[in-house]
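Journal club side-thread
Mid-discussion, someone asked how the predicted structure for our own chain would compare to the paper's figures. Pasting it here so we can look after the session.
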Amino acid sequence: MRQPLHILSCLSFALAVGALPLQAQAKPAAKKAVPQTAARTAAPAAAPQKGASVEGITEYTLANGMKVLLVPDEAKPTITVNIVYKNGSRHESYGESGMAHILEHILFNGTKRFPGGMKELEALGAEFNGTTWLDRTHYYVSFKADDAKLLRALEIEADRMRNARVEQPILDKEMKIITNEFEIGENSPGRVLMQRVNHAAFDWHAYGRDTIGAKSDIQNVKLDYVRAYYDRFYQPDNAVLVVAGRIEEAKTLALVNKLFGAIPRPTRTLHATYTVDGVQDGERSVTLRRSGGTPIVTVAYKVPAASHVDAATLNAVADMLTDTPGGRLYKALVETHLATEISSMGLGTQEPGLLQFIATLPKDGDPEKVKAVLIQELEGLGDKPFTQEELTAAKLRIAKQYDMQQADTKSLAIGLTEHIAAGDWRLFHLTRDRIAKTTTIAARNAAQTYFRTANRTVGMHIPTDNAVRSEIPAIPDVANLVASYKGRAVQQQGEAFDATPANVEKRTQLFTAPNGLKGALLPKKTKGAYVTASLNLHFASEEALKAHSRGAMGLMADMLMRGTATKDRKQIQAAFDALKAQVNVGGGGTSINATVTTTRENLAPSLRLLAEVLKTPAFPASELESLVKEQVTAIEGQLKEPQPLISQWLQKTINAYPAGHPLAFSSLEDTIKDLQATKADQVKAFYQAMVGADHATFACVGDHDAKEVQALVTELFGSWKAQTPYQRIAAKIRMAPAEQQVIETPDKQMAIYLAVQPLELSQDHPDYPALALASQMYGGGAKSRIFDRLRQKENMSYGAGGQFTAQPQDKLAMWIGFAMFGPKDRARLEAAAMEELKKAVETGFTQAELDEARKVYLQQRESSRQEDGAIAGWLNGSLYLGRPVSFPAQMDAKFKSLTLEEVNSAVKRHIDPAKTLIGLAGDFKAAKS
């Protein structure tokens, strides 16, 4: 639950057969701090004061100092509540490293009024999370728009602002879990290298410390210190609350003021941090030697705070350098095969920070040569300034991302977090405007100012006389900077549309093209006039695949965006950027999936360009070589990692196809060989023989004219037929006997546990709904048995759970349990996991468990169908499977009608602990020493 490089999601094994920062402080007194309680019977709070209003976002300030941002969007079927506390790892003192992150964990353990913690949020059918970073901690919850759910979400946030259970048993439990999270991070060479570079770059500033904290601080921090930190920062005058989506502004403000306004303004004073590193006076270096992964080279420079105008300019500079495929660093490193990937990060901090350029190399790459090229390109920009064409393209790409985020109110609500942390939410718009005004001269000046040898942190230290040094500007006065800022016109607002199966079916218009392509169109008004179109091409047959190489099958879809008969990769991307179109094209040996999200006015030209990409690919040999390098490097980075090795073992164990079959199991090593042996003419031959639109489905959801889109799709794809007749390939599974596989992964402090039982049943099986609900109770959420046992009670795992997956048409399903854990806990974890599985089978679940799981499961199903992209996927699936659009309602009815006896009986019929496949991967030998 940390952020940017430290976001770690719980594993999902759905198998694809794939220094003082504040004023000098005295240590806390022995006397325990008494939390300030928001008295729910307090007198009504004073009316909030209205502040700035920019582009549909309005700021209010409560009497206690808390800021509130309201972002109404009638077209959004959800509400997002995001609360930002302006404290992160930068605000931690000696011995307190990781404190902000520890408190983030503690806040998910509930309050006396809401003791359920995560379970209280899950009961809303909500998506929720919390993250900690350098300048802030935030918590968000997003759920289907509903007054009762909004009330409960705000009640929970208001209560845990001052009444969180900061107690020794909870601290002890979370310290063990965070230790496991620390160990997970230690598995990643890229993350550890980033940590080391930060340490080397900063002498005194807290940005040199990693958000996770020192392991010793995590394990030894005192409760009084945690309470003191909580009482200092978790206060209304240090918080900004964002409420966005389908809300009534006046009603929501009154509710927020009632709940949060009752919390008193604290008597303490928060002092501004004042530690500033001196001007860097020479290149710095760090070298990391770790097992696994592939070489990585990072070159970093000190840069101004996010609010400084140069930070906006450097955003454009970084884009022009790292853009794929047109960026200068991409051309100098990836196109020459010295590296397989180039990226950048930084520019988002409240105080002067670090801009890093990161190159990922192939296994046999030359780090010294890559370092030399990086430095030459970065520090030579004064002699080779950017062209107007490069800058214009970068502005288009960046503007597209801003427009799309602003159109997606949920994304905007969460995305404002970093701008709030940097000084003010309006920096979102101001930075956008500054980037739009950036000139080539400004870009050159910024590069020359900051990309200097003496301001560099890289792989070695070289003493240098008469170094030209970079003076980092002071932090701008943000309040004065944004005081008169008005922003641009508010985006077009959309209509209110509740995506129930009945409403979607009623609104959807179906059609069939002459070649058999099936289409579904759902026109509706959206914020910013955005629309999503999705085209799925289905092709090939089992027999036809035997004539083609596995490498060609795996690479073909990924090659489509890399060149057409008239455009190269860079021109394709530039054309889509000019159309404000977000495009994704992917697939495999039997399908291609293409999705375009753009505005109404740009939909037709975007679809025409997509048709060019799909129908006239060029498959250039140089691009194939780059793609192979990228994919091989990615696989090589997995060869010693626990999770991919366990996944590989499972695929091998249950794969039902004989050796030589196009769908037979292929190891990571064999996959590398197949990729490296593939030629461009093989990929082209596979495409020409297989691909067409005669068995395609098309869905369009959002702001569009249905008649015009139907005519255009028919024109572009309605006569396109494949040379090879399509015959769907049924998925198969091998019912392997029970076994346990242990894979040693030296020097990996995080281990993986996976327990799987394959089943021969599909979603049409009468017991599918019962097994799905049983899996929810077993491992599907915060109230599930596996999560509760392994994380909440025994504190062995940062992430644990389970799931049940089944194919819609074929008899292929899996009952899955998984956990991440420290290798020393292997025996305890294995025993506990098997005990919970046996209990589920032998004694079954309770009525209370079923009632809660059913409610959460149905709410999650409902929430997952609300966004336009999800609706497009739903419509495509309905067309392909021949199901009515309202089919989800039929499934919902089955879930609602299930009895406890039916669920427990289904589990007994199908799940047998004695038939479980168990895989473990980790450094178990070292754990015994």
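Post-session note: The two ends are 31 Å apart (CA to CA).
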